[in-house]
Amino acid sequence: MPQLSDIPGLVVLVLVGAYLTLAAASYALYSVFFTSYHDHDIERRGDSALLGMRARLVFSWAVQPIWQLVQRLGLPPEALTTLGVLLSVGSGVTASAGQFAAAGWLYLAAGLCDVLDGRLARAQGRASKAGAALDSVLDRYCDAAVLVGMAWYYRHSWVLIAVLASLVGSLLVSYVRARAEGLGADARVGLMQRPERVVVLGVAMALSPIVDRFVTIAAPPFVLSVAAVCFVALTTHATALYRLHHLLRQLGSQSFGFGSHLIGVVISSALATAVDFGVMVALVEYGRIVPWLATGVAALAGASVNFSINRLLVFESDDPAAPQAFRYSVVSATGALLNAGGVGAVLLQPDLDYRAGWLVVRAAVFLLWSYTLQRSYVYRPAVRPVATSDPAELVLRNVERARD
């Protein structure tokens, strides 16, 4: 049951919940009896899988009294920007001390300031590129302050890894968008953008102390916040990679595209990995070989299985086998070294099981090295001469063939 220390958080939760409920009800009545409510600032940002347009418009409707108050006070936009930074730093400090309810509400309040400062700058005719640049940089500090506070609190727990992954993912999501805009492209896509991150982490932290009173499973403290930060860690990196893929497509690059062969490569790699894993475990458990060396030997053992399946069934290549086998041996050998070195590196952590380290390293090497090179290097169709009397046509056809 909730304890005395939970009362402030419960009071804030009840007040905010009641206010949002009344706002949603009044929004619904206004939409039914008058006209549809519109907010051009919200609508121009597009929809979101987590925060749909209706939810965003209800939020906009709910903050109208606060917006009117800010306008009447005549505050400069910089005041809201710096207030948001101070609230975020306060959120990080309180999170580091284990006061997650206060940290959550402070972070949500900082997010509200971030919504209003740009709107206020436009309303006062003070919007500028310098202000937008300053706001973007300070937003990164705000996100980092909260996650650094959580990292300090969980510094002796495995949750620290998820928090650090969330920090890196959050920065990458923003960086890819900024890089796209610098190149004249648009990368405002993906699941976990900044408003989603603020809502997910803020709400989870605000509710965590109350949820913990009803959770009986053995877990790190503030289990709802742990689940939220793990979710943010996964979705921010997925969003950053999706934005990168979207950006490269706009720029005309297919280098990091998924391609039509991905499923086949995954299946063949899974079969080869089964062989690889079985050999590795056998060498360690029965052959008494150290894990890093067993990993390198096992990777080579699965290479022949992978090459045969990919050549004959996945890419259906009819190019000469010997050059392909050589190229594949280069990729496999370097992949084996990367896998062996990676396992050796992660096992510098003495408490980490070698099998878990093997799986993590294997997945990273496959995505970042093996698949990319199999598609663009090993099984890439050879450029054959084309019968034509026009030299220019010959060059164009060979270039087109090389791009396929």
Taken from the alpha-carbon principal axes, the silhouette is globular
Q: For the residues shown, what is the average pLDDT?
A: 81
Tell me the name of the CATH class of the largest domain: Mainly Alpha
Helical residue percent? over 70%
Radius of gyration: 27 Å
> How many separate domains?
2
Order of helices and strands: HHHHHHHHHHHHHHH
Structural class: mainly alpha
Q: Give the CA-CA distance, first to last residue.
A: 63 Å
Give the name of the CATH superfamily of the largest domain: CDP-alcohol phosphotransferase transmembrane (TM) domain
The strand count comes to 0
Please give the CATH architecture of the largest domain: Up-down Bundle
Largest sheet: none
By DSSP (H or I, 4+ residues per run), the number of helices equals 15
Runs in which pLDDT lies below 50 for 5 or more consecutive residues are 399-404
Percent strand: under 5%
The CATH topology assignment of the largest domain is: Four Helix Bundle (Hemerythrin (Met), subunit A)
